[in-house]
């Protein structure tokens, strides 16, 4: 069965990809891009290093614009990020019968609650699988055991999270100061290969 | 890292065992028995067919007696089963740094909520991993793909869930009628080997 995994190049989405592959799914890693900035490149590189097929799905630019409006109004990213995440899952559900992402047990945003998951699965006729059975400690242990990981400050070039395109758009509309206030630079872990290849 | 998986011989606990093994954990399957009835035999057989090491951990008989009291008072099994389940996890946590069970996303009982998981992990210095990222549809697909499964009515001999010893004790204390009213016979799926060996 084909599984489409929403992929950023981070530990979480890399681990769920590994789990699904080991269970026998034909895994394809998918990064959704809205056409404002080519922020899929880091994810494509991580995917290639791990040997997975990687696809870029084009999202509707208005969806990102709407999310950016929400975020600017709110002054914080959670609701806007959840909107983009839900949209990305719906987009992947057009092409795959198993839709997956790296949401962990202790994640707060983006996250679907149980009712949202049931509705998403039923409306789209898909199965949704994430990392809801694992906490951050287990993810960190697994990531250290499985992957070669690079810790670095986020930049426009090394990160494929939604926040890159969102920050880009906020910068354009409202200036860099607000963009970096809402999405500060932070230390990220990016998967850049298998550990055994180090 | 060693992982102790609370094991019944059913689909769910078999799948989490397979996932953990594929991620590199040294998996041991553990069935807790309270000394009233040797209900671990079905689990031991399933484990052996899948090639996992299986252990029986002896639970404190009073814990099962207390749970049975709760269940008889309540007239339904949920609270008593949750007590036994929590106790079994604590018991396994003495021997393993990773403690696991087959609880799925859509399970209601037995289940730890997020706060109970945090408390369990912190008190015992362990990581807890379950199937919280998967729903019943995915579990059924995976089980069909991976395992040779036998569907049959539950009996005293083919089931290693807590309910066997609990039903045994309720029968002794209050008679078979109440025992089978609270825990009716039902169709169960027991893993009896790998699918490729069929």
Automatic annotation (TrEMBL), chains A, B:
Listed Gene3D superfamilies: HUPs
EC identifiers of the protein: 6.3.4.20
Keywords per UniProt: Ligase
GO function terms (MF aspect): ligase activity
InterPro entries according to UniProt: DUF7411, Rossmann-like_a/b/a_fold
Top EC class for this record: ligase
Pfam families registered for this protein in UniProt: DUF7411 (PF24167)
Protein name, entry field: 7-cyano-7-deazaguanine synthase
């Amino acid at each position: 069965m084909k599984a489409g995994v929403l992929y950023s190049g981070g530990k979480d989405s890399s681990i769920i990809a590994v789990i699904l592959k080991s269970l026998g799914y034909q895994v394809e890693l998918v990064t959704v891009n809205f056409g404002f900035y080519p922020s899929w490149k880091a994810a494509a590189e991580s995917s290639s290093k791990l040997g997975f097929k990687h696809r870029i799905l084009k999202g509707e630019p208005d969806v990102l614009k709407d999310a950016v409006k929400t975020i600017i109004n709110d002054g914080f990213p959670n609701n806007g990020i959840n909107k983009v995440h839900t949209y990305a899952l719906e987009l992947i559900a057009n092409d795959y019968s198993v839709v997956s992402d790296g949401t962990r047990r202790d994640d707060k945003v983006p996250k679907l609650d149980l009712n949202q998951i049931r509705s998403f699965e039923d409306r789209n006729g898909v199965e949704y699988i994430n990392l809801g059975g694992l906490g951050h400690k287990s993810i960190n242990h697994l990531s250290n055991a499985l992957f070669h990981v690079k810790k670095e400050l986020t930049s426009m070039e090394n990160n494929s999270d939604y926040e890159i395109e969102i920050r880009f758009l906020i910068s354009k509309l409202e200036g860099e100061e607000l963009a970096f206030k809402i999405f500060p630079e932070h230390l990220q872990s990016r998967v850049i290969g298998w550990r055994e290849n180090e």
